[in-house]
Amino acid sequence: MASSSPRIPHHIAIVMDGNGRWATRRFLPRVAGHKQGVESLRRCVKACADRGVGVLTVFAFSSENWNRPVEEVSGLMELMVGALGREVPRLSNDGVRLHFVGERAGLSPKMVKGLVDAETATAQNTRMVLNVCFNYGGRWDIAQAAARLTERGEAITELSLDRAMALAHVPDPDLFIRTGGEQRLSNFLLWQSAYAELFFSDKLWPEFDEAALDEAIAAFQSRERRFGQTSAQVSTATA
Asked: If you write DSSP's letter for every residue of 182-231 in order, what string do you get?
């Protein structure tokens, strides 16, 4: 039987999908949806911190998103630079530590400097870790980990790969949320999500509020996490 313990997932990962559709339905440019998505992320970060979540990892820009229209990509880059300037002081005051995860080659020097400065400014914060996956892909992550081990002459094993992944500084996600009604991983945290509980929301990301987050957490709390064991073993271990 599923556990009724009101445990809070330590690590939540979110594919923030639906910004463009949210804007299109309102006859707005797609970048307007991404701007609204920043507001939703701000709200979600605060809600997660208030609920005791230790790590929040969000998919901000995938390595495949470069294939989108040029004006949308350039708008996203400008939005990211602007958001860094506005949000980092607030996040720092709230005790949030920022990590940017992804390939930085190909990003502008201004962008890279902004990412580094944001990480440095929040490095001492301990309330919650916010990983922003930017120019990230799950297959890239596995490949770069394998390449790093090969360069160091280390054997490639599950343990060594795990330690070389881009999110080795945090435990694997407990709860994986995707908004926007789609039900796929889309190359996000492929390695790390092996045992994550999956939750798919029909809400577009700009509409994802505290109530929607609580619904996802409640679904997580209703599930029995066995990690290859039987229900009887889990019941004995938690008794």
From this structure: --S-TTSSTTTTTTPEEEE-SS-GGG--HHHHHHHHHHHHTS---TTS-H
Q: Domains of the chain (ranges plus CATH)?
A: 11-223 (3.40.1180.10)
Q: Which residue has the tokens 């999110």?
A: 167
Candidate list 19, 65, 117, 131, residue with the active-site label:
65
Q: Is 17 assigned a catalytic role?
A: yes
Tens-place pLDDT, residues 74-110: 777 777 878 888 889 999 999 999 999 999 887 888 8
Give the per-residue pLDDT at 77: 78
E-assigned strands of 7-127? Answer: 11-15, 55-62, 96-101
What is the side-by-side strand order in the sheet with 175-178?
A: 96-101, 128-136, 55-62, 11-15, 175-178, 197-200
